[in-house]
Amino acid sequence: MKKILQIACVFLLIACGNKKEKNPQEPKTPTKQETAAVPVDKLVKRIEYVHQKDSFAAKGMVQFHLSLQMEGKETLEETIRIATENLAMRIDRYNGQSFYFEGQKTYVSSKEDNTNSPKFLVHASLFALPFVLKSPGSQTLASEIVTEKYESLKLILDKNIAIFPSSTYIVFADNRTDLIKAVVYTEQSEGEKFTISFENYITVKDIPIATTWKIFEWKENGELFGKLLGKAKISQISFSPFSKEIFEVPQDAEEIDDSSNPPIG
Predict the structure, then answer these.
(1) Are 183 and 199 in contact (CB under 8 A)?
(2) CB neighbours of 9 closer than 8 A, spacing ≥ 6?
């Protein structure tokens, strides 16, 4: 169960595009090309533009419901809230637990469910990935993977940025729309890689949101989309003014040691 939840939360938070896709298809494995990648800075600007970075930051707060299925069985339900300016985050779980992410600190309302450590929940921050590509402490480099359908860049977070753990990501953007279509996540301590695809985009208050996320195995031969491991549906998406009370950490909440980068599988 812990492993399933670890896999789940790595792809909670990156759902950003420009318009609703029609007739979405299962992503195909890209092949390497000899053509050079586009300049990284230009690609970052295009991604930030299509994901409406400035508009997102001005919204105040975003909220959505997550329903995850692993092997066809529903395994997780959560409500996520994120402050759009400073990226504070709160996660309310189906079992009554609440997690609060404030800067580099993580708190839990209770530790009754010890089998499901909240350390991995920091990966819910991937929803906000398009908005930290050029943050202090991040590096955006050319990616070694160049494909027909996607342009890519390597994002290295050398230290915790807001709700993000230190790690390495390969970000793939559609070469026609600049929407983020997939992310390869590398878990640092064990070196495991997983690919998360983002599908079925809709626009909510001018902000593009992917409502279906899928997680795949990364094969040793470099195949981007291996075996399908799980799917998540995002629903009940809404924006509202920032509310300080929602993100306030309760006095009886306990701080969690989340200094290490947790595995996702």
Answers:
(1) no
(2) 120, 121, 122, 123, 124, 264
Count of Cβ atoms closer than 10 Å to residue 176 Cβ: 8
d(CA 129, CA 147): 21
Show the tokens assigned to 215.
């997680």
95 vs 4, 195, 255, CA distance in Å?
16, 28, 19
Residue showing tokens 């790690």: 167
Does this model's pTM top 0.85? My answer is: no
Q: Which residues pair with 140 in a beta bridge?
A: 155
Q: How far apart are CA 175 and CA 247, in angstroms?
A: 37
3-state secondary structure of 260: coil
Rounded to the nearest 10 degrees, how much is the dihedral formed by the CA atoms of 119, 121, 125, 126?
110
> 10 Å Cβ neighbour count for 36?
8
Q: pLDDT (tens digit, 0 to 9) for every residue of the chain, 265 residues total? A: 444 444 445 444 444 444 444 444 444 444 444 334 458 999 999 999 999 999 999 999 999 998 888 777 777 788 999 999 888 889 998 888 898 887 677 888 876 554 444 444 545 667 888 888 887 778 889 987 777 888 999 988 766 555 666 678 899 999 999 999 999 887 666 667 788 898 999 999 999 999 998 988 887 666 778 889 888 888 999 999 999 999 999 988 888 765 444 433 3
